[in-house]
Amino acid sequence: MRARQLVCGIWSLCFMFCLFCIFLHQTTAKRKLKFVSLVFRHGDHTPQEIFPTDKHKEIARQQGYGQLTKLGIQQQYELGQYMRRRYSHFLSLVYKQCEIYVQSTDCDHTLMSAQACLAGLYPPTQGQIWNPRILWQPIPVHTVPLSQDNLLYLPFSHCPKHKELLRETFATRDFQRQFKHYKQFLKFLATHTGYPLKKLTSERIWKLSDTLQYEDTNNYTLPVWATHGVRTKLIKLSELLLQAEFGFHKQMQKSRLQGGTLLKTILKHILDARKPSYHQKMVMYSTHAATIAALQMALNVFNGKLPPHSACHFFELYQEKNGQYTIEMYYRNNSMREPHPLTLPGCKFRCPLERFTHLVSPILVPYWTREFQPEKLLELQSLLSSSVRMGVIQLPNLSRILCFSFHIILILLQQTAAARELKFVVVLFRHGDRTPIVNFPTDLHKESEWPQGFGQLTKTGMQQLFELGQYMRKRYSSFLNSTYNRQEFYIQSTDYDRTIMSAQSYLSGLFPPTSSQIWNPELLWQPIPVHIFQKTTEQRLNFPLPNCPRFDELQHETQTSKEFQNRIQPYMDFLQTMAVNTGFELNHLKILDNFQLWNTYDTLHCEGIHNYTLPVWATADVINKMEKLAELSLLSLFGVYKTEEKSRLQGGVLVNIILNSIKQAVNSSTPRKMEVYSAHDTTVGALQIALNIFNGKLPPYAACQFFELYKESNGQYSIEMHYRNDTSKDPYLLTLPGCTSSCPLEKFAELVSPVITENWSKECGKKDKMKDIFIGFNVAVGLLSIFNLVLLYLLYHYGLCRRRNNYQDI
């Protein structure tokens, strides 16, 4: 009987345990991670500023200010590897552009940090390996110029209201009580660093702390005065000033103006992630210590410590078993430990999304520009010999004389060549092979059939740009430094994944890490910053340039012009057939500047390259005719009719930028040797048509236009242009009409002047909005003044004032 009871008891316990396991499994299984947002600080970097008495000036000379170090690259790479482990069941194993978006401030060390982190997060596997020797793949990192960054580059310098709050903070009793302990210390710092006491601002204190930390970490000899105690006190002062910047006094108002702007963007992504149509899984931000501190103070979860290099704040959105959404926050400030869970005050750690949104709503500003009272933003100004030894062999007299003469000629030629020195290079290239931009109505293949979707760089494209980088390494081996030097080299790209990734692939071929730059022996790649212009603001690379009414008029005139009609008439029957085959309307296909025919040709071209089945009607003859029409599309876009006026509004803008960079290289002592632009076929076409050197052919993938500035033996400067559109041949030497192939700089500038405009907006027919606002304001003030004068006159003669005077007279 007892045995039976014992067996029943055991069975009951087992049954209860099984029910508990099933319940636990269901509970955990039904909880699903939906979205992640990350904000991390860059890795270890060189100082952003050397203090006046610092003896290690060579740091700036050798590596430049604010450059990511090998240690910093490794820190970010390991952060990426940690993310791969943490989100292995959430993120795809292979990179998918629809899943992740990465944004950085436009600083070298944050751009490089983002690239290094992505190298650890997405090592290429299987089908994504494009180069077996470099187990790395390019992934786009987006950015905006610092002057336009209203999201990540904190604290915002163009916010008068925040400056006013900061002045109030410094005057508060609470701040003064803590700051008084550092007044003598500041005098000590001023004495030993060489900075005037008034110049020791919060930003300079942070930079000074950063400099000493860098020199200590990298085994530089520290100044005698920079003891461990001094450095510790300097960190404490930095933390106090950081808290004053975003907290202490009227913290909520400060958060609305600073960290709340980033939180608002993160929360928008989180709210959007609930939609079934939302495919993005992760958004990453590569930023600074101040950004993380501002964000955490806005959330009231700041621990009072300076965020270390590679510190990372996580936001994770979960869908619970009951269908509700919750947010969890973590903070990783130590690579040896798991991230610390963070709890939003007023909520539990696993905070319901609605509750989270309600709690942070006081610091989210609907229209932050109004609250900022922004000052006028300043425009970010663009920054813009081998010898041969020969010996003489003893030969018979006649031969010796001939050889001597020949030797003299060679020496003269050598001296002439040696006297001609390459000074500066500008390079513009088209991105590499990519997937189609769009498909046409009757296309056999949909976007889902392309692994990365439309408009993405392929493995072939990566290899093409890598080889272009290798070619340029050989071409400029005696001109460019063998190792990457940010003072010599600068690269910009349009804000498209394919151009950013092309730029990164190109750099991996141009600057493979050597000797001291190798940070990982198993990965012969190094991050190099690619600077980017937003689609909405760039006026130099993304052609045709938008928002130009006069250019739109010229395009309409072109389509009806005799010059254009003579070229398109032979293709009218073909276009009618193509309308039936592609599903487009004939009237739309005839208008070549709407890109329908060009894009259709491009789609078939991409499908053919990648062995996709083409429609039966897409024969070699048909595709050849479509190519001719695509070439006519490009030519008519920037030429055919009133080419010079079109060029002033389009390609001439880029000609002017390149010419200014070349002139700056002549007139300044800056060490910049090369500027590179990663762009599109329309960019190359617009530039070449403006220069009247276009060959009528569509620029192929990785096509490259070179501008080389030489200093001649007589001290004069000349420009040579080369065009590389075939990897099996050396670049073609191009000649500007009206000049020689080696064109004197002054003559070059004179010849291109007709396509350069001094006021692009005015020639485009755009109205000056600011001028209209000022005129309207002045008119309003004038009318108001007149109204006041009339009112005063009426009051004086007919109002109370007049009657009172009459009463006094009586």
Cα-atom radius of gyration:
33 Å
How many distinct beta strands?
16
| Poorly predicted tracts of residues | 24-28, 374-396, 398-417, 800-810
How far apart are the first and last residues' alpha carbons, in Å? Answer: 128 Å
What's the number of helices? 30
What percentage of amino acids are in beta strands?
5-15%
The overall pLDDT average reads 86
Give the overall form. globular
Proportion of residues in helical segments: 40-55%
Would you write up a description of this structure?
The protein is of the alpha/beta class and about 800 residues long. Helix content is about 45%, strand content about 10%. The strands form two sheets. Strands 1, 2, 3, 4, 5, 6, 7 and 8 form an eight-stranded mixed beta sheet that branches. A hairpin with a 5-residue loop joins strand 5 (about 310-320) and strand 6. The longest helix is centred in the C-terminal third of the chain and has 30 residues, at about 770-800. The radius of gyration is 33 Å and the shape is globular. The chain starts with a helix and ends with a helix.
